[in-house]
Amino acid sequence: MIEKPPHQPGAVGDLASIISWSWIVALSLLGGLAAFVRKMRANHVRVWNFTELIGEIVISGLAGLVIAHLCQWREFPMSLTYALTGIGAHMGSRALFKLEAILDSKFPASKGDDNAA
Questions:
Q1: At 97, phi and psi to the nearest 5?
Q2: Which residues, 6+ apart, have CB-to-CB distance to 72 below 8 Å?
Q3: Which domain holds residue 53?
Q4: Most buried of the four, 8, 66, 86, 114, by CB within 10 Å?
Q5: Is this structure's pTM higher than 0.85?
Q6: 18/13 Cα distance (integer angstroms)
Q7: 32-53 burial, b for 16+ CB within 10 Å, e for fewer?
Q8: What pLDDT, in 10s, does the model give residues 49-85?
Q9: Angle between helices 50-73 and 78-91 (to 10 degrees)
Q10: Is residue 49 a contact partner of residue 43, using CB atoms and an 8 Å limit?
Q11: Crossing angle of helices 78-91/93-106, nearest 10°?
Q12: What DSSP designation does 13 have?
């Protein structure tokens, strides 16, 4: 007799999972907005530069989702996942560059590889 596999926490249809991931996406997008406001106050961007705002939000959203998936993979508590997601989303592209540096140190490319596009 075939047994039913155990219930996976965080299944797509699970209401708690939907709420958690909605909160993670919201934190990621707010991180992008906060990064834009910080740059605006430091006079690094123009006040009504819409494309800069959208760019910050998209990059922060990506960084936040990557960090949230890494936290879920390492089975961190959700409160820590939310905190790290917010921090990573606020860091935006800097968080992605840090992650790239970590992966480059863990998995160095051989000397013959040319990863220039």
A1: -65, -40
A2: 10, 81
A3: 20-105
A4: 86
A5: no
A6: 7
A7: bebbbeebbeeeebeeeeeeeb
A8: 888 889 889 999 999 999 999 999 999 998 999 999 9
A9: 150
A10: no
A11: 110
A12: T
Domain for residue 65, yes or no? yes
Domain count of the chain?
1
Q: How many CA atoms lie within 13 A of 54 on its CB side?
A: 3
Helix, strand, coil share of the chain (percent; to 5): 70, 0, 30
Does residue 2 register a pLDDT over 80?
Answer: no
Residue 74 included in any domain: yes
C-alpha pair distances (Å), 63 with each of 10, 13, 27, 28, 42: 20, 24, 11, 8, 22
User: 39 lies in a domain?
Assistant: yes
Name the token pair of 76. 């961190």
